[in-house]
Amino acid sequence: MVKTQSFFIISDSSGATAQTLAETVASQFPELKAEIRRFPFIQTESILTGILKLAKKNNSLIFHTLVSSKLSAQVANYCAKNDLYDIDCLNQPMSYVSHLTGLQPQRVPGLIHDLNEKYFKRISSIEFAVENDDGKNPHGLPAADIVILGVSRTSKTPLSLYLANQNQKVANLPIGPSLQIPEELKLVDKAKIFGLLNTPEKLSRIRKQRMLSYGLNANTPYSDPENIKKELDYAKNLYRKLGCLTINVANKSIEETATIILESLDLDEETFED
């Protein structure tokens, strides 16, 4: 039997961190339908009061990242008086850091989003990924920190954008028996090249869904498993010649694939959420 539970995400910044935690928790309950609502950039007691009243009405579980100790205490006190559960994703970790280091937090909302050097580098990386998506700018390949190769529908674009958010300049290139490999690829260090694979069966399903979303016939040479197998065999041979790392993404999330790439390059993920 499927049960429904309301989750409220309250933050004085974007709330992305608290939402990720809530979604991770909810994912562990297959029979739970989580209704998640996010309330970002909350910095006044009056607005917070209205949200808390709404949370009470929905019997919501509250995840919050409020830098202000006053607002955080307001949530905790309201929940205690109204039999609601709340998870403070920020203040307890900050208190631990203070205890260990003797330092005190500034308690200024949005500090992580300050327009610092890392921020501008991330914006530049995202722009680079867009300009060098799907092989449309081969001249950008030598300038990339990471080059992703793959046949159609192996998640090259979302992976590129995810890595761009980690401050990496990423170019991706579609490959296949009928596609020409640009000369610029020869100028790229093989350690920076990553070849994506998938199974013929899964790629066939993904491509059929793609065709249906366009209102077209799902059964085409593009989605035929035998043709896809030929494409994958071509990709494997190419990756072998290039000497690049090959990653089968069939059962991997974008985050898992990105972690493999970053670890291969001895890089750490850099996140910019609150």
Straight-line distance between termini: 35 Å
Please mark out the parts with pLDDT under 50 across 5 or more consecutive residues, or reply none. Answer: 270-274
* Biggest pleated sheet: 4 strands, parallel
SSE arrangement, N to C: EHEHEHEHHEHEEHHEH
- Large-scale geometry: globular
Report the count of strand segments: 8
Strand residue percentage: 15-25%
Overview of the molecule:
This protein is an alpha/beta fold. The chain has 2 domains: 110 residues, Rossmann fold; 148 residues, 3-Layer(aba) Sandwich (Rossmann fold), CATH 3.40.50. 42% of the residues lie in helices and 16% in strands. It contains 9 helices and 8 strands. The strands form 2 sheets. The protein has a 4-stranded parallel beta sheet, with helices on both faces. Helix 2 runs parallel beside helix 3, helix 5 packs antiparallel against helix 6 and helix 6 packs across helix 9. It is globular and about 65 Å long. The C terminus is likely disordered.
Quick gist of this model?
This protein has helices at 16-27, 45-57, 69-81, 91-101, 117-131, 156-164, 200-213, 225-242, 254-264, and strands at residues 3-11, 32-39, 61-65, 86-88, 146-150, 170-174, 193-197, 245-248.
